[in-house]
Structures are given as C-alpha cells and as structure tokens.
Design goal:
Strand order of the largest sheet of chain A: 1-2
Largest sheet of chain A: 2 strands, antiparallel
Number of helices of chain B: 18
Shape of chain A: elongated
Radius of gyration of chain A: 31 Å
Distance between the termini of chain A: 52 Å
Largest interface: A-B, 47 and 41 residues
Structural class of chain B: mainly alpha
Structural class of chain A: mainly alpha
Strand content of chain A: under 5%
Shape of chain B: elongated
Helix content of chain A: 55-70%
Oligomer: heterodimer
Order of helices and strands of chain A: HHHHHHHHHHHHHHHHHHHHHEEHHHEEHH
Chain lengths: 605, 390
C-alpha cells in the first residue's frame, strides 16, 4: 500500500521543505479524501493481499469453530444431560437416535461431510483447486456437532480444520484469488480452524505444514502463521487462554525413568498399530455393504457405543473431561487400560460407520488412558517412587498421536502446547519416536493416506514423499577430465590444448569467485595480441554448483550451458567435478525414482 | 489485486466478521451463563453431600461442577477436600498439586496438602506445607486462619511426641496473642499439655486481664498454678471459676483437688515436724488403702504365698498385678516405720515413705480408675515430685 503523494518543495541545499500550506476548500477536501480512498491507492501485490486475507480467515475460522465447540457442548447437555455419568436411557438412546438423523443428513444432504477433514482439505489443495463447497462446511458443522454431542466417539478438531478450510476456500473464491493462491488458501483456513479447536497455534501450523501442505516455503508459512495467530487471539477472546489440560508438576527425577517412558513408547506404538489396522479392516468392509445400510450404520455404531457407555460413559464423545480425570489419578491402571482399549473399539465403530467427526480427540483419549495405565502400573510395581501419573498420561497422548496420525513433530509440540509444561519434552520425544518407529515399521501407509486411498483419492503421501531420497549433485557429477582450462593460461596455449580435444566445452576459473565457460569453436576463433591469459579474455561468467546442491537446483541453474563446474564450498576455485543435463537424467534413472514413487502410490492396504 | 469488486468483497467479509463477532459473543455468553449455572448447581449438590458426610457423592458433584467451570480454583479445592475425606489420597494430591502450581502461596491449598501429607504419613512434606500455609495468603480472616493452622501444626507435633517443636509453635502463638478468647483458652490448654505451665498461665492471665468473668480461664489458670506447684493460687483460681459458674463440674473438682492438696501436702513449706509426719503417715495409710482397693477391684490376691517371689510377666498387662503385689508386700514391711510416732522418731524415713506413696499412686493410677480426691491429690504430688526431680 503506497502513501498518498504529497507536494514537496526542495530548498537550495536539497533538503525537503514543508509542503505549502493553504486552506483547502470543501471541494478540495472531498476530492483529496476520495483520492486517498481510491482503489488504486489500495493496490497491493497478491502476496501482501494474501497475508491480509489470512488474518481475516483466521478470525472468521475462529468464530465458526468457537460456535461449533459451543454447539457441541450445548448438544451434549441437551442429549446426554449435565452429569458426568449420564442416565442409562440417555446413554442408550441418544447416540442411536441421533445416528439415524446424522445418516439421513449425510446421505441425503451432505455426502461430503463424511470422512476425514484432513483428507478433504488435502483434496481441495491437490485436486479441486482449493474448492471446498460451502454446503460441505455447513454439513460438517451440523453433523459433527450432532455426532460428538450425542456421544459418538469422535472429536471436534478434524471437523474444525475442515470448517476453517471451507471458510477460507469460500472467501478465496469470492475474492477471485489466483489459482495458485486459491489452492493454498484451504490449508491456511485449516490451520486457523485447528488452532481454534485446540487453542494451540504452533501445533496447528506444524500439522498443516507436516500433513497437508508438506513443504516449508516463506510465502505459505507466513499466511498459515498469521491465520493461526489471528485465530488463537479470537478463540482466546471467547474461550479464555487456559491450556487444554492442566497437569500436576512434573520433574524427571532420575534418568532411569526414561526406561519407563520408553516402555510407554512401545506399548503406545503397538496400540496405535492396533487402531490403524482395525480401521483399515473395518472401514472398507462397512463401505462395501449395500447402500441402504448407510442409513443405519451410524445408528448401529451409536447403539454399540451406548451399550458400552452404560458401564463406561467415559468412552463417549471427545472425552476431554475424562482425560483430565485420568491425569488426576482418578482411575486404577486396570480401568485406564480398559478405557484405552474400549476407546479404540468405539472410535473405530464411529469413524468406520461414516459418522462425521475427527480422530484427534479420541487419539488423545487413548493415549492418556494408556499412558496413565502404564504410569499407574509402574507405581503399583514401585510404590516408593512418586510416579507422576499425569505426566505419563500426557506423554501417552503424544505417543498415540505420533503412532496413529504419524505427525512426529506436531505430536511433540502439541503436548508442550496443550499442557503448557515444557519440562516433559525429553520423555515425549523418546516415547513418540519409539511409537512412530513401530507404527512405520508395521504399517507402511499412514492413516490419512490409507483413508484417502480407501475413498479412491490419489492424494500425495507427504510421509512417503519425505522418505524419497533426495538426489544431490554429488550423486550425478563426474570427474572433469579434459574439460578444464586455467585462467592464467595464455590464449595460444589454450587453443593448442583444445585443438586436439574431443570435448566441445571447457570450464575456466577466472579468479575471485567466478567461473567462465567457452566452447572449442569459440576458443579457436579468438584472436589476441601476445600471451593474454584466458581470464582476461573470457567475460561471461557461468553459474557453479556445490556437491550438496539438490539436482533440482542443478537443473534450474544449468540452463543452456552444456556443463557446469562443481566446486568446493570452502574454495570456489577448487574444481570437484562437472555436471551436464545428461548426468542429471542418468542419475534420476539410476535412482529409479519414478518407479518407486508409482509403487508407493499404488499400495493400498 | 485492485479491482473494485475485491474491495467490496473484503469490506463485506469484514462486516460479516464483525457481525459474526457480535453473534458469537452473545452465543458464547449464553453458553457461559448456562455452564456457570450448571457448575453452581453441581457445586451446591457437592456442598450438601459434604454436609451430609457423603464425600464420595460430593466428589462426583464437585467434579461435574469443575467440568463446567474449569478455571474455578475453589471447585477444584473442594473436590480435593472431598477426595481427601473419601481417603482417595493420590487423586486428591494430583488436584492439589495442580492448584499449588497455580497458586503456590495459597494458604488453604497448602493446608489441605499438609493434611494430605499427614494422612500419607509424610512427615517432611506435611511440615513444609503447614509452614507454607502459615506464611501463605488467605483470602479471608488471614490472622485467624494462620492461628488455626499453627494450632493444627502444634497438635500434629504433639501427636508425633515432638514436644520441643510443639512448644515452639505454641510460644509463637503466645507471642502473636490470638484475639479470640477460645483460641487463648486452647493455647493455654495446649501449653499445659506440652508441659509449659508458666506460659500457659501467661495465656490465661492475658485472657483474664480482658475478661475476669471467664470461668474456663480461671479453671485453666488453676490448672497452670497446680502444675507449677502453686496450690494456694490454684485453689483461689478454681474457687473463682466455681463462683462464676457453679455448674462447672470440672472447676468444682479442681477446687476439691486443690483444697485436698493444701490439706494433705506433706511437702509444703513451713510445716512443723509434727504436722509433716502426721501428713506423711496419713498419706502412707491412704496409699495402703488404695493398694488394697485396687487389688480388690482387679481381683489381685494380696496375701497369697507366691507373692514373695513374683514371676516377671512377659507383658505389661500381666506385670501390673505383680507390681501391686510387690508394692503391697513392700508396704507391709514399711508399715511399722510409717506410723506418725515412728516417723517423728526417724525423720530421715519421711522422704522414703513419701517416695513409696508416690510409687503406689503412680502404679495404681493407670490400672485402677476412680481414685478418691485424696488419691488424686497424692497422684498430683507424685507427678509434681517427678517434674521437680527431672
């Protein structure tokens, strides 16, 4: 945005003088005001405009998600009552009857409301040019609120992410953003939505970068961060800035405790694996059932969850209040372990039945229960140690998040952010890393990729992309045999040298940090007086590469040059090799990248 | 990006956001009110359950209240207290530590943590939290609250038989001079319990200086004087207590005791030898009668043949009859030398005779309840003698 031009006079010494002051007439005043507010004055580059839009998206998403969360709470009170232990008729009937309503809405009105919000946002980014229909957003809001409020074992974060993405998409379309920006705007909204759902902007930014966009670029990162901050400010304005969980004080008293956290990582890793395999087994089978069963599947899931909920109401809904109870040592280790196992069952039922809702909160619930069970069991084994069960529950949440959702960085920062407890970072990293490793080893495809493939969408797997080895210049360069000349070499000597050479192009260090290149024909055509060195004749510099540069960078730099020099980073004049387009192609072929990528995409569990 | 339609879209978006802000505000406000109302309702249920001594129900109700008002520290504190009452100590501790992290100087949180540590028999932690509570922040009546905590801590030390630290706490209280008469009375009583009669008297006198019509204070002053061996002052104080409240049975008994003490005390100063020997002889007779009565009460045969060589019993209960028998035999042997005439001839035996009397009273007091006033008086003298010796 440029400032309005001001009439400025100059003094003799060149300094700016004050503008001439005169009393403006009313007409002059209005015309200058119009000029100030004219569209031309507000002209912005699209990048700057995108950042401003990101702030607006953050605010709008937060408002929508706050309303969404409040709606869930109100529905829960209306449907299940205000007590922590709802009455049996409510537990039995609410999820089942609401399940019928949800199925009707999803099948008849909002078919795209079912499924994972994360994948739908990715689909908007990679398939639909950033387009998420407003109808989907409304449907997601209504059906997810009903599902979670009635006790289906699902969470509000995933739908919040999609609501944010949908709002962003609608705004982007309305503002007629370019196709590139329109595609990126959905993840920006997703970050805002997730921030408002979790009250954790860092987690949201990391998750969207790690799982939805898959790359760190300054442009998109700035927009995502701004949207998350704006969303956090608005969300905290309404719902306060308390961390999601309040955990009793924790200090790692002895390094030996890390062994217990490592065991939690192992148990959490296998629990994650069980959950993902269970979804991988159940969901396709339920989807293969006759279409009319889709009207009944959420109700059937609700019925089963209600039956379990009569004895264990903790497994119903998002379960945040019960996570808090587990952290405050309300349950024995047996009950905690049972609740963790039952949550796996109920969440699998709810999610696979096509009931809209997210996996984040159930994942955290399972983690808290399993972590708490491990902590309690350890306290049972070693009663003289003051084992902090709350800390185990917290670490367990991160562990299952890393194991199920396979977002290792997000899982670490999420735990720090939702608890406001930074002393726990070492156990969290250890346990998460173990769970992530186990999950990756026994389940190659991450859950979101698996779900998208079950839905017939070929979305890029960001984890698989991260695993594809990055080819570098050093993988493709070859020794510079016979293709170098020195800058000090007199022209006649150089001409004599290249005359009998089979090579057509030669690289020449011309002093300082510069390299030049010359073809044999050009060199032979050159005429100079006396023994003028080559460095004084060659005036066109060529780019050079370092061995650690990615081959992608090499391709961008190589342009029309037949070869480029590969030089040492500490001494640019030291030639390590040369690289041509053919070398790059050969390296890519040798790595077999195309085949491996295709194979990875084709894997459907 | 400069088209007019874009500006219109941005303006419309801003307007929608502002309108959404207002709508969300009212929606959230409505929800918040509903939640606060539910929270209060469940909290009230919890309070009722606590009053009905149903801490389990109360904990559940407080927990639900907390669910609707997560930031309410008081709800969490009440939940912790209910859990503590329910003896769910680890759970209570977890909630209390959460609160403590938020407000490490909160007096009530520290006090509850101290009580929890007492239940968990964690001596170090309990002392630390009690001291935190004494020096902590109290929302209402801080002085009274700190006084109450210090009393509780002194009480705790007394239970732990850590008399010196109990004394230290009580002397701190005395220095602080709690304004509440009930606290002053309690302080005096506890000072007496930790064997600090001088300071106890100070506490009672302080109370009497403000209100000399308090029969309990006079009674306390009487007990303190009695403990200090000032029987005349003790008698005077107990008489005052009876005078103010004739129905105060404890004061009446105290008066009888002090009068009896003044009447029979063989160790009183300025007694003539005749009077002293007379009192010692009477005390001896009293002790022998006490032994006989006690033996009869407990069915202990005093004249059996094997009492000359009593077997030492393994446990205390079994050892008691033997002690009575031994004392009786010893008394029979001393009887001839413990008459008034014999004592007058041999004043050196006065002390040993009185030691015997004290030994009888000390031995019979724990096993034979319901001593006469004279026996109680002798027992007090025995106590006094032990203190003096110590």
């Amino acid at each position: 945005m440029s400032l309005p031009d001001q009439p400025v006079t100059s003094t003799k010494d060149g300094t700016a003088a004050k503008p001439a002051v005169s009393t403006p007439t009313r007409r002059q005043y209005w015309s200058s005001l119009r000029a100030m507010l004219s569209p031309e004055r507000f002209s912005l580059r699209e990048e700057q405009f995108f950042l401003i839009i990101a702030v607006l998206i953050g605010a709008a998403s937060a408002l929508a998600v706050v309303c969404f969360r409040v709606t869930i709470d109100l529905l829960k009170i209306k449907l299940l009552g205000s007590g922590l232990h709802p009455s049996v008729p409510r537990v039995f009937l609410a999820p089942m009857i609401t399940g019928l309503v949800i199925a009707l809405l999803v099948v008849r009105l909002f078919p795209r409301a079912r499924g994972s919000g994360v994948n739908q946002t990715k689909a908007a980014l990679y398939i639909y040019d950033g387009n998420i229909p407003a109808k989907t957003v409304i449907g997601k809001f209504i059906t997810s609120a009903l599902a979670i409020g009635s006790g289906q074992s699902l969470g509000p974060e995933d739908p919040s992410l999609q609501i944010g993405a949908g709002l962003a998409s609608a705004l982007g379309r309305r503002l007629k953003l370019s196709r590139e920006k329109l595609r990126l705007i959905a993840p920006v909204g997703a970050a805002a939505g997730l921030t408002a759902a979790f009250n954790s902007p860092i987690t949201a930014v990391l998750f969207v970068i790690e799982e939805v966009i898959g790359r760190w670029t300054a442009g998109i990162l700035g927009a995502v961060v701004l949207a998350a901050i704006s969303s956090a400010v608005v969300e905290r304005w309404f719902l306060g800035d308390e961390p999601l969980f309040r955990v009793p004080a924790y200090h790692l008293e002895h390094a030996g405790e890390l062994g217990a956290y490592a065991s939690l990582g192992v148990i959490g890793g296998f629990a994650s694996l069980a959950f993902v395999k269970y979804i991988a087994y159940l969901r396709p089978r339920l989807r293969k059932l006759p279409p009319w069963t889709q009207y009944l599947q959420p109700a059937a899931a609700g019925l089963l969850i209600g039956l379990i909920g009569i004895k264990f109401p903790q497994v119903m809904g998002a379960g945040y209040s019960y996570i808090d109870q587990a952290m405050h040592e309300q349950y024995t280790w047996q009950i905690l372990a049972l609740l963790g196992a039952l949550k796996i069952v109920t969440t699998g039922l709810s999610f696979s039945s096509g009931t809209p809702g997210g996996l984040f909160a159930p994942t955290l619930f399972m983690g808290a229960m399993i972590g708490g069970a491990v902590g309690m069991f350890e306290r049972h084994l070693v009663p003289h140690l003051a084992i902090p069960v709350g800390a185990y529950a917290l670490v367990g949440m991160g562990t299952l998040f890393a194991g199920i959702l396979r977002a290792p960085m997000t899982s670490v920062f999420m735990i720090l952010e939702v608890s406001g407890n930074y002393t726990i970072i070492v156990p969290v990293i250890l346990s998460n890393a173990i769970a992530y490793f186990i999950s990756r080893t026994f389940q190659r495809t991450p859950i979101f990729d698996m779900l998208s493939r079950q839905d017939g969408l070929d979305l890029p797997s960001l984890e698989e992309e991260r695993e594809v080895p990055l080819l570098r210049v050093e993988d493709a360069m070859r020794p510079p045999i016979g293709q170098t000349l020195t800058g000090e070499m007199p022209l006649p000597d150089a001409q004599r040298r290249v005359q009998g050479s089979a090579q057509d192009f030669f690289v020449v260090p011309v002093g300082g940090d510069d390299w030049s290149g010359v073809t044999r024909a050009e060199l032979l055509d050159l005429v100079a007086n006396g023994d003028v060195p080559l460095s004084r004749i060659l005036d066109q510099n060529i780019p050079y590469l370092h061995p650690d540069h990615p081959l992608d960078t090499a391709l961008r730099l190589i342009g029309e040059w037949p070869i480029l020099p590969v030089v040492h980073r500490a001494n640019v004049q030291q030639l390590l090799g040369i690289l041509s387009v053919q070398d790059v192609v050969r390296a890519y072929r040798g790595a077999g990248l195309g085949e491996s990528h295709a194979a990875a995409v084709a894997v459907v569990p | 990006v400069g088209a007019r339609s874009t500006k219109v879209a941005v303006t419309v978006t801003l307007v929608i956001i502002l309108a959404g802000f207002a709508l969300t505000q009212s929606f959230v406000q409505f929800h918040r009110q509903a939640e606060l109302s539910l929270g209060r309702r469940w909290f009230d249920r919890g309070e009722q359950a606590m009053q009905a001594h149903m801490p389990g129900f109360a904990a559940e109700a407080y927990r639900t209240a907390l669910n609707y008002n997560r930031e309410n520290e008081f709800y969490r504190l009440r939940l912790a207290q209910a859990l503590l009452a329910e003896n769910r100590l680890p759970e209570a501790r977890a909630h209390l530590l959460s609160l403590w992290e938020q407000e490490p100087a909160d007096g009530e949180v520290n006090l509850t943590l101290a009580r929890l540590a007492v239940q968990q028999k964690n001596y170090k932690e309990s002392i630390r939290y009690y001291n935190n509570a004494i020096n902590g922040v109290w929302q209402s009546k801080p002085r009274e609250q700190r006084t109450a905590v210090r009393f509780e801590l002194a009480d705790y030390f007394t239970q732990l038989h850590n008399q010196s630290r109990a004394q230290a706490e009580l002397l701190s209280l005395l220095a602080d001079a709690p304004p509440d008469p009930a606290d002053q009375l309690r302080l005096g009583q506890m000072l007496l319990e930790v064997n600090e009669p001088t300071h106890a008297l100070q506490a009672y006198n302080s109370l009497l200086s403000k209100d000399d019509k308090d029969p309990q204070a006079w009674l306390g002053a009487s007990e303190a004087n009695l403990a200090l061996g000032k029987y005349a002052e003790a008698e005077h104080a107990s008489e005052k207590a009876v005078e103010i409240d004739p129905k105060l049975e404890a004061a009446r008994q105290q008066m009888e005791l002090t009068r009896e003490l003044l009447r029979i005390d063989p160790l009183a100063r300025r007694l003539s030898l005749a009077e002293r020997t007379s009192r010692v002889a009477k005390a001896f007779q009293l002790a022998m009668r006490r032994l006989s009565a006690c033996a009869e009460q407990k069915n202990i045969p005093l004249a059996s043949s094997d009492t000359t060589a009593p077997a030492f019993a393994a446990d205390e209960a079994a050892a008691a009859p033997n002690a009575v028998q031994l004392l009786y035999i010893s008394g029979l042997q001393k009887q001839a030398g413990a008459t008034e005439q014999a004592l007058r001839k041999n004043p050196d035996a006065l002390e040993s005779t009185m030691q015997y009397v004290f030994e009888v009273e000390r031995t019979t007091a724990p096993i034979c309840p319901g001593p006469s006033v004279a026996d109680r008086a002798l027992w007090r003298l025995a106590q006094q003698s032990s203190e003096t010796f110590r």
